[in-house]
Design goal:
Elements: H1 2-19, H2 25-39, H3 67-79, H4 81-92, H5 94-100, H6 112-124, H7 131-145, H8 161-177, H9 183-201, H10 209-225, H11 228-243, H12 253-256, H13 262-282, H14 286-292, E1 297-300, E2 303-306, H15 310-322, H16 350-358, H17 363-373, H18 382-386, H19 397-400, E3 405-413, E4 416-425, E5 428-430, H20 432-437, E6 441-444, E7 447-450, E8 452-456, E9 462-467, E10 476-479, E11 483-485, H21 497-506, E12 512-517
Antiparallel strand pairs: 1-2, 3-4, 3-8, 5-12, 6-7, 8-11, 9-10, 9-12
Length: 519
């Protein structure tokens, strides 16, 4: 018996000295003893009932749930079987497995989801006798990531978009536990995150999704530190980014300048991350609603980002989905033939993650997408589940003032034709002289010449007939629904042969217009 006890003591001692940092030895030793006890109990006993549910007064500021969302979730756990089962299966029980697994993966990002689950287990069940086990375990792992145990900056320097996406699980986990841990641990982890943010902030402005990733990481860090001055500065940078973001037809500069629809998805994913953080910080969706409707108005070399909003970007995505595109990362790439092999809501594609985050500030839009695709998430991700609580929807301001169509004027800028003006036209008849009076047509050598390059026509609300003569004669075309453009951008890789044929017939050809409201 003595030999057996001695062997166990030696084994525990070796583990302790090989892994633990001296400053946290007490926390880790106590936690591992408790974890060992837990491992021998009922980890997989799904018949167990949850105990120690937090009450609504135990809310603390974090980036996972607003106070309103926390109250809603606690209420639903108490009242609905569906919510209670999801929390039991995916947080309460799964966190036991995460806690019992003390192996340290080579890829540090693999533990980020575990950190999030364990932190939620603590936060939602603070009255449980085992709550502090999860709090301590998350703290210890974050300290180790921060370099307190291994003196390395290996995780500060990330070079690819998907890895940055994993950052937010880790940051959210820390935002949950930070108010409950000791000041010394707070300081060490804070300094690590500040160092990470400083590294990314030194990178040059790229005007693509790397910028919004950087802003999202910085905003998340500042929200955790509750630094309102820096948060306000982050929001200003995000506003500037959106000002330079969206072309009138919904194409963002990231898609416009690169070779795959995935960049459109990534961009929306990280913008959505920022929007959730802004909503939680301001306890309102008023600012985010404004940003959804913010029109771009900028020219960057030959790139035109004019007249579009994030709502236009979502409409472009909507059109892609309705075209039965399943795996949007493959759209308009050499892998396009494979795009239906992985379901949008079933695979691990970036589109799935984007919708998970977008659902917090655009719940009606995401629900509408699911209905159209006939794809409901029977087992949503943790983030998607959490984002149901406290979620909001944006309002499309243009719909509120919709009573006609938009006509786009184009002009030559350097060697490219770009949209420079949008003119609102209500139902009626417009001769070349009428169009000249609003700047869409001009006179040259005694003849009318058109500067009309495209239209935005609300679907099935107006019938628009365009003519290539000034008095409703000549060649004509009638349409009741199409999105925006006749314009051909010479550098645009995404214009199809059908687009080019249509463009060649009508680009800068329209000299009179009839707009009839469809009753």
């Amino acid at each position: 018996m003595k030999k057996l006890i001695l062997k166990k003591v030696i084994k525990l001692g070796l583990y302790f000295f090989s892994v633990l940092h001296i400053s946290c030895s007490k926390d880790m030793l106590n936690n591992n003893i408790a974890i060992s006890s837990l491992s021998n109990s009922n980890i997989l006993d799904t018949s167990s009932t949850m105990s120690g549910l937090s009450d609504t007064s135990q809310y603390s500021h974090n980036s996972a749930l607003s106070r309103k969302g926390f109250v809603e979730l606690i209420d639903q756990i108490q009242k609905t079987d569906h919510t209670r089962k999801y929390v039991f299966d995916n947080i309460y029980e799964t966190s036991k497995l995460s806690l019992a697994n003390q192996t340290w993966p080579t890829d540090r990002t693999l533990i980020f989801k575990d950190l999030l689950i364990e932190s939620l287990r603590f936060f939602l069940f603070q009255k449980d006798v085992e709550a502090n086990l999860y709090l301590t375990d998350v703290k210890i792992k974050l300290l180790r990531l921060s370099g307190s145990f291994v003196k390395s900056d290996e995780y500060i320097f990330m070079t690819n978009t998907p890895s940055h996406g994993k950052d937010f699980d880790m940051l959210t986990a820390y935002s949950i536990i930070r108010p409950y841990i000791d000041i010394d641990s707070q300081t060490k982890i804070d300094n690590w995150l500040i160092k990470k943010a400083a590294f990314h902030n030194k990178e040059k402005i790229r005007n693509n999704n790397w910028d919004i990733i950087k802003y999202a990481l910085d905003l998340h860090t500042n929200l955790i530190m509750n630094d309102q001055i820096k948060i306000n500065a982050n929001i200003k940078m995000i506003e500037t980014y959106l000002q330079n973001q969206t072309r009138f037809d919904g194409v963002g500069v990231d898609l416009y300048d690169r070779d795959a629809f995935a960049y459109h998805i990534y961009n929306l994913r990280f913008i959505s991350e920022c929007f959730k953080l802004i909503c939680i910080n301001q306890q309102s969706n008023e600012k985010v609603d404004e940003l959804f409707n913010k029109e771009s108005n900028a020219f960057k070399s030959f790139k035109t980002v004019y007249g579009g909003t994030l709502i236009d970007q979502l409409k472009l995505l909507d059109n892609a989905l309705l075209g039965n595109v399943k795996h949007l990362e493959f759209l308009r790439t050499e892998w396009e033939q494979d795009m239906s092999k992985i379901g949008l809501f079933k695979g691990s594609g970036a589109a799935t993650y984007m919708f998970d985050v977008l659902s917090y500030t655009a719940k009606d839009y995401v629900k509408n997408i699911e209905d159209k695709m006939q794809s409901n998430l029977n087992k949503p991700s943790i983030i998607r589940f959490i984002n149901k609580f406290g979620a909001t929807s944006f309002s499309d301001k243009r719909k509120e003032k919709e009573a006609g169509i938009i006509v786009y004027k184009i002009d030559r800028v350097n060697k490219y034709f770009v949209p420079t003006k949008e003119v609102f036209l209500s139902p009626g008849k417009y001769t070349a002289e009428d169009l000249k009076n609003v700047g869409l047509v001009y006179m040259a050598l005694g003849e009318f010449k058109s500067n009309i390059g495209g239209f935005a026509i609300p679907s099935n609300k107006y019938n628009v007939t365009i003519y290539d003569k000034s008095d409703f004669t000549g060649n004509f075309k009638s349409v009741s629904s199409f999105d925006h453009f006749f314009i051909y951008f010479p550098n645009n890789k995404y214009v199809t042969s059908a687009d080019k044929e249509r463009i060649s017939k009508w680009d800068k050809k329209t000299l009179s217009i009839v707009i009839d409201k469809i009753e």
